[in-house]
Amino acid sequence: MFACVGYAATAADAPLKPFAFERRDVGPEDVRIDILYCGVCHSDLHQARNEWKNTIYPCVPGHEIVGRVAETGSWVSKFRKGDLVGVGCLVDSCRECASCKDGLEQYCEVGFVGTYNGEDRHGRGITFGGYSRAVVVDQSFVLKVPETLDPAAAAPLLCAGITTWSPLRHWKVGPEQRVGIVGLGGLGHMGVKFAKALGAEVVLFTTSQSKVADGIRLGAHEVVLSKDPDAMAKERGRFDFILDAVAANHDINAYLDLLKRDGTLVQVGAPETPLPVSVFSLLMKRRNFAGSLIGGIAETQEMLDFCGKHGITSDIEMIRMDEIEGAYERMLRSDVKYRFVIDMASMPETV
Ligand code: NAP
Ligand code: ZN
Ligand code: ZN
């Protein structure tokens, strides 16, 4: 065991603060990573504040981790000291069920181990995430980050990136398709970039007038202000695929109506309360409403390699660790352009 410092929430209504804890020593299959940067996902905020009603305190959030390998176990073959690596939302799974065998560890039938707030398979209670100086992870759940990418701007690829990449690939989004992305936050802005890179005609739906120009800059062919009923009415029945990345409760039926016959709306945003679905929107045009959870390890590596090849990263605003509460408040106001990333050099060395 070695001593580590992180930032933890201790209750749903308590601000995050410095927290001392221990990490396991490097086992034969493990990689110890000195964390350089950690992205701030809206899920961190949902979890820290117990909005999904399953948080175990103290909770050290953070699942968009980029760092350098500091030590490797004796059986580790994939990584060497000094390598630029990433860790996303998963640090383990059963590895034996049908989903794990299909490389879809996020749908592990036994239950994947989350990078934080997960049940540690190394028998040490609950996992602690990337708002910390270091992490120890089994090599099978560590990703190679292309050295050509800015490591801070690559961090959000580990969750926002893969969560949008996976459904776009699964539903085979590509040329000749009109694709909608709903909500220009961390996930949404990666969705716009990827849908564009995959060759689709991309339409961004946003509630924020201030993000219209950015939507075009990031790759959207058109931007629709979703609060404008006339603009929404013009889009009815025109979409093959829509990816909804909104973090709060909102009217998804307004988007189901925009799908063509047999079109699909995939929900990746995870508001704390259920979203009512109009059955008639679905059955009138045999539309599909689906969900998607992050992505498997192999497809996360595929996404990182694609980003390396095409020079794709996140648009980020760097913060210090002690600015996290302000960043959360800004996320709640949709005032994020387009991912906060914590510079781990700002983490205190002791508590
Ligand atoms: P974020 O950066 O805070 O972005 C969310 C965006 O949603 C906002 O920027 C805003 O965009 C829009 N929005 C917010 N409130 C809204 C409202 N009341 N009505 C309409 N639009 C609203 O969040 P994120 O990190 O991208 O995460 C988005 C959601 O995905 C969260 O719920 C998160 O937990 C979830 N998530 C799911 C997965 C998964 O595996 N499925 C993985 C990661 C995250 P505009 O200003 O453009 O309207
Ligand atoms: Zn996330
Ligand atoms: Zn499994």
TrEMBL record:
<dbReference type="Pfam" id="PF00107">
    <property type="entry name" value="ADH_zinc_N"/>
</dbReference>
<dbReference type="InterPro" id="IPR036291">
    <property type="entry name" value="NAD(P)-bd_dom_sf"/>
</dbReference>
<dbReference type="InterPro" id="IPR013154">
    <property type="entry name" value="ADH-like_N"/>
</dbReference>
<dbReference type="InterPro" id="IPR013149">
    <property type="entry name" value="ADH-like_C"/>
</dbReference>
<keyword id="KW-0560">Oxidoreductase</keyword>
<protein>
    <submittedName>
        <fullName>Alcohol dehydrogenase catalytic domain-containing protein</fullName>
    </submittedName>
</protein>
<keyword id="KW-0862">Zinc</keyword>
<dbReference type="Pfam" id="PF08240">
    <property type="entry name" value="ADH_N"/>
</dbReference>
<dbReference type="InterPro" id="IPR029752">
    <property type="entry name" value="D-isomer_DH_CS1"/>
</dbReference>
<dbReference type="InterPro" id="IPR047109">
    <property type="entry name" value="CAD-like"/>
</dbReference>
<dbReference type="InterPro" id="IPR011032">
    <property type="entry name" value="GroES-like_sf"/>
</dbReference>
<dbReference type="InterPro" id="IPR002328">
    <property type="entry name" value="ADH_Zn_CS"/>
</dbReference>
<comment type="similarity">
    <text>Belongs to the zinc-containing alcohol dehydrogenase family.</text>
</comment>
<feature type="domain" description="Enoyl reductase (ER)">
    <location>
        <begin position="11"/>
        <end position="342"/>
    </location>
</feature>
<dbReference type="InterPro" id="IPR020843">
    <property type="entry name" value="ER"/>
</dbReference>
<keyword id="KW-0479">Metal-binding</keyword>
